[in-house]
Amino acid sequence: MRNKVVARYLDGRVIKGTTQDFIPSRSFFHVIVSPGTPGVQVRLEELKAVFFVKDLQGNPDRVDVPAFTRGPGENAYGKKIAVRFADGELLCGYSLAYAPGREGFFLAPMNTAGNNERVFVVLSQGVEVLEGQAADELIRRWTGQDAA
Fold this sequence. Notes:
This protein is mainly beta. It is built from one helix and eleven strands, in the order βββββββββββα. About 30% of the residues are buried. Strands 1, 2, 5, 6, 7, 8, 9, 10 and 11 form a nine-stranded antiparallel sheet that branches.
């Protein structure tokens, strides 16, 4: 099965394409940028996240609202999580797989109507991950409003 992915590097680079060999416990995978071309090797240690998407074009006019929209502290997708990357980007969702000390984890995005189906967050230096009430507090500070 080919997954559509957007790999976002720590240095700001982005590579879009498909992958058939992403395994979270492996240090690299390949992205096929154009059909019929060889895959580009992507090393997890160089990434901030891998976005598994519905459409590689995305929606450039989108407005991301990193709020929990009064979501429960836990649901079928796991615990409420807020991730603040070293570059300041904030991502909110739920995770069954987050554990401190691991190299990364999958996050189910809050906005299920958006382009992201799931996100593999790479836990590199400068990434802040908060759960439950602490995640809510981070969102309140970030947005300057109540994000209960």
